């Protein structure tokens, strides 16, 4: 009898591949993470394949290029909402800024005033090498170009007046040029969904490869307060939320839902990264073999944060929000493709710039082939109410970017700022470019860097999610 029972159990286990899996309830696994990603025409499985096979490997090699690895950020700004509370003192929270000489000259863009208006290198071609748009007034092969700062512009005497927006009339005084730059910056800032601190005096370049996003030990009251403020203080007026975990998506209009889901997706992505790159060794016992600690995937931590059984059934929704956010940023990159295709990715190293350009073009080609892009055109449609909603949406998002100055751990603040700026850039692209008209639309270098890096983080999260699911099966 005993032998018979044992054989039945072995047979049942074999049929279910593993005993663990057989005994596992839906509450204790990620099996429910499949099917449609609400508010989009896309399935989780489709996105897993698309990301893990086509996007992730491309971004991995693109984001180590010089143009994308240096991010200019102000980590010293004071929190505008409350007195700074405790700072994370763990060494994993600190950020190593770049020395001035580490940053490629082309990225620093240090052009002295005399050089700005001075004699320029010239070259021939129907399109100036680094110019941001084709110059219609240039006759092919007869146009001479000159370098001005980051860009190359047609020489006025040879090409006639060009309608290129980047063209600098050298007869203007330096003062007027500076004022014009400020006015333009102000106009663009009105459209911005986040606060960009690239031009602050206190901003510094940070090498993202030397300061990877990973577990820092930042938690407790400060972290809780930041997340709570992002969710509760930035909700659209009429609602009051008790707890982030019980947001009722059914009661929200599409725009509110999109806002909540993008924040929740970002939160999920940050938490996946800290689980995927976790400090496995004891921080109080540095080993001689691994003085900087042993880092790796922590399945237990991941399960605590996302399993339905340990999150009141919410974990899978948060992961779905990650997929949703991925689709939002994917669509923004597709929409910005005409701009990105014209970008020179200038660092001052011709070979590196060319390789970066080719890698971006290759990525854009794959992104354009994706069949089920997020459709932003259904948002903010209708009368004045919807117009107000768009303004409210933007103001709330700007607030989220301000809250990032309240994060009490520099490493978390760096990546939090980069990812909110990337998302802000995506939203600006989605809701400011109308009918595909990009002529008057401009992206600053930091916006491009944050957009691609933020998307890279989401791509990495989806990839790691697959690894965690495999780990759990085993
Ligand atoms: C901007 C920012 C960046 C950070 N970066 C890092 C980092 O790089 N490395 C690091 O180690 N730590 C980082 N942290 C801290 C980390 O996110 C957690 O706050 C911390 O680990 C404590 O986790 P917790 O379990 O208390 O829950 P938290 O993640 O703090 O979540 C608080 C509550 O929000 C709800 N919730 C959780 N996830 C979601 C979601 N996806 N959607 C909706 N609701 C949710 C749950 O009810 C949860 O109890 C960062 C925090 C912030 C605010």
TrEMBL record:
Family: Belongs to the EROs family.
GO molecular function list: oxidoreductase activity
S-S bonds: 88-93, 128-194, 409-412
Signal peptide: 1-20
GO cellular component: endoplasmic reticulum membrane
Protein's name according to its UniProt entry: Ero1-like protein
Keywords: Disulfide bond, Electron transport, Endoplasmic reticulum, FAD, Flavoprotein, Glycoprotein, Membrane, Oxidoreductase, Redox-active center, Signal, Transport
Quaternary data: May function both as a monomer and a homodimer.
Subcellular location: Endoplasmic reticulum membrane
PANTHER family linked to this entry: ERO1-LIKE PROTEIN, ERO1-RELATED
Cofactor: FAD
Organism: Cryptolaemus montrouzieri
Record: residues binding FAD: 214, 216, 227, 264, 267, 305
Active-site residues (renumbered): 409 (nucleophile), 412
Membrane topology of the entry: Peripheral membrane protein
């Amino acid at each position: 009898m005993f032998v018979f029972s044992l054989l039945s159990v072995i047979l049942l286990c074999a049929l279910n591949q593993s005993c663990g899996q057989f005994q596992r309830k839906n509450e204790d696994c990620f099996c429910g993470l499949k099917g449609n990603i609400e508010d989009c025409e896309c399935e989780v499985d489709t996105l897993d394949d698309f990301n893990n096979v086509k996007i992730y490997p491309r971004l991995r090699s693109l984001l180590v290029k010089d143009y994308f690895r240096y991010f200019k950020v102000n980590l010293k700004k004071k929190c505008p909402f409350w007195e700074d509370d405790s700072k994370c003192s763990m060494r994993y929270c600190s950020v190593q800024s770049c020395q001035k000489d580490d940053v490629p000259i082309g990225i620093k863009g240090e052009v002295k005033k005399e050089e700005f208006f001075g004699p320029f290198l010239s070259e021939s071609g129907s399109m100036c090498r680094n110019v941001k748009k084709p110059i219609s007034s240039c006759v092919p092969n007869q146009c001479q170009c000159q370098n001005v700062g980051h860009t190359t512009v047609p020489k006025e005497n040879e090409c006639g007046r060009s309608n290129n927006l980047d063209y600098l009339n050298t007869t203007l005084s330096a003062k007027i040029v500076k004022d014009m730059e400020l006015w333009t910056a102000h106009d663009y800032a009105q459209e911005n969904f986040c606060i960009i601190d690239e031009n602050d005096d206190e901003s510094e370049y940070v090498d993202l490869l030397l300061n990877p996003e990973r577990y820092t030990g930042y938690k407790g009251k400060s972290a809780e307060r930041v997340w709570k403020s992002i969710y509760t203080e930035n909700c659209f007026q009429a609602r009051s939320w008790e707890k982030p975990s019980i947001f009722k998506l059914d009661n929200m209009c599409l725009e509110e839902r999109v806002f909540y889901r993008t924040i929740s997706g970002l939160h999920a992505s940050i938490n996946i990264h800290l689980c995927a790159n976790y400090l496995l060794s004891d921080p109080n016992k540095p080993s001689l073999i691994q003085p900087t600690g042993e880092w790796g995937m922590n399945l237990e931590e991941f399960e605590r944060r996302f399993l339905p059984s340990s999150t009141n059934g919410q974990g899978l929704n948060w992961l779905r929000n990650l997929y949703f956010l991925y689709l939002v940023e994917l669509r923004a990159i597709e929409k910005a493709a005409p701009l990105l295709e014209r970008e020179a990715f200038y660092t001052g190293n011709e070979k590196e710039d060319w390789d970066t350009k080719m890698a971006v073009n290759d990525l854009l080609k794959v992104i354009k082939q994706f069949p089920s892009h997020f459709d932003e055109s259904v948002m903010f449609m209708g009368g004045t109410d919807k117009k107000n909603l768009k303004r409210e949406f933007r103001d709330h998002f700007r607030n989220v970017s301000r809250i990032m100055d309240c994060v009490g751990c520099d490493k978390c603040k760096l990546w939090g700022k980069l990812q909110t700026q990337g998302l802000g850039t995506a939203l600006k692209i989605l809701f400011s470019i109308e009918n595909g008209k990009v002529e008057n639309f401009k992206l600053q270098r930091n916006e491009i860097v944050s957009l691609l890096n933020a998307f890279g983080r989401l791509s990495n999260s989806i990839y790691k999610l697959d690894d965690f699911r495999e780990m759990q099966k085993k």
